[in-house]
Amino acid sequence: MIKALTALQPTNFFHIGNWFGAIEPAVALQRDHKLSMFIVDYHAITVPQKPEELRKNILFAAATYLAAGIDPKTTTLFQQSAVSEHTELAWVLNCIAKVGELERMTQFKDKAKGKGESVSMGLFGYPVLMAADILLYDTEVVPVGEDQKQHVELARDLAIRFNRDFGETFVVPVPKIREVGARIMGLDDPMKKMSKSAPSAKNYISLMDDADTVVKKIKGAVTDSGSEIRGGNDRPAFSNLLAIYSLITHRSVEAIETEYIGKQYSDFKGDLAEVLNLWLAPLQAKIKTFVEHENDLKAILNEGAQRAREQAQRRMKQVRERIGVAL
Ligand code: ATP
Ligand code: LTN
User: Fold this and answer.
1) In a domain, 193, yes or no
2) Terminus of the chain with fewer CB atoms < 10 Å: N or C?
């Protein structure tokens, strides 16, 4: 089976962009891929974190994955920090990565904006740790949203460079970007991607939003001018709302547009909020059940880490030999 790997940052919530861009595609991959999936707690600390919140968020992320349908028997589900080979390989890769290529990373440029020289080394090296995550496990495909493509390309470049300099060691991974819904846009600004760190909560629908909040956020979502419920390049707001509707109901955008010919924006928004809430309710119940069983969650993560560690240790031993530090 093809080896796939993906990861999510631990946060206190996930939004529907994370769901359609990362979580759902990963769950679907389990059918015909050997999947590794982990919670990148060491990536999370590239920005300040409160320790007690971080601990809770790691467990919440695990609960969300499991509720989404990740099967820990077939998928290796674990915490990044539990497998120290990730940071060890990141160091080795730091020594072949170039400052210039890291400076070109658009996520770094966005996150470092306005911070000047006070930006952390961790944030700068973030893509190198991500490359280590990927290369440790002979990963063939990396399912991510569009925004992470550049990071996967860096992992490819580093694999190729290492193989060239030290001999064939790493599999060169390929990013797998989902076509529809690869980029869910902000409800308050359809020109920018939906984002956890948006200044306003009106930007996103959290998987944990209650029904009233969903109704309010959808009602308040920015729309395009005119009166037709139709997407297209000139209609970013409706393209986004229709994409969300389509992803949830598994109906084509064209079919939905046809259904709403002659109807009001308010009809469409009311229905969209309703389908969202019907979809969210059972998912939220499942997440809550997993969160309430903390010891089970920890046991699943430990078991996953044990399996991951075996693979990572083998690969890291080879890396030490190749670079000449193994005596
Ligand atoms: P931040 O606000 O810090 O950028 P985020 O909400 O964008 O956070 P990430 O933790 O960066 O979330 O991304 C987690 C995963 O979700 C990644 O695979 C990413 O590509 C995907 N993702 C994030 N936002 C979206 C989006 N708006 N549409 C589709 N996929 C997304
Ligand atoms: N940078 C990614 C998370 C991430 C990841 C990875 C994704 C860290 N390591 C390895 C895929 C493979 C993000 O913020 N979404």
Assistant:
1) no
2) C
Q: What's the mean per-residue pLDDT of the chain?
A: 95
Whether 32 maps to a domain, the answer reads yes
pLDDT at 180: 55
CB of 8 within 6 A of ligand 1: the answer is: yes
At 149, the amino acid letter reads K
Q: Return the ligand 2 atom nearest residue 5 CA.
A: 12
One domain for residues 145 and 91: yes
Instruction: Kindly report, residue by residue over 261-286, the tens digit of the pLDDT.
Output: 999 999 999 999 999 999 999 999 99
CA 178/CA 88 separation, integer angstroms? 31
Q: Ligand 1 within 6 A of 144 CB?
A: yes
> Quick one: 125 and 267 in the same domain?
no
Range of the domain at 235: 201-288
| 131 lies in some domain | yes
% the chain with pLDDT above 70: 98
Ligand 2 pocket member 159 (CB < 6 A): no
- Residue closest via CA to ligand 2's atom 4 equals 7
Kindly state whether residue 171 falls inside one of the protein's structural domains: yes
Give the pLDDT score at 182: 62
Model pLDDT for residues 41-86, shown as the tens digit of each residue: 999 999 999 999 999 999 999 999 999 999 999 999 999 999 999 9
Degrees, nearest 5: CA angle 286-292-293? 95
- In the numeric block, which tokens belong to residue 232? 């297209």
What is the position in ligand 2's atom list of the atom closest to the CA of 8? 3
CA dist list (Å): 262 to 253, 257, 268, 271: 16, 10, 11, 15
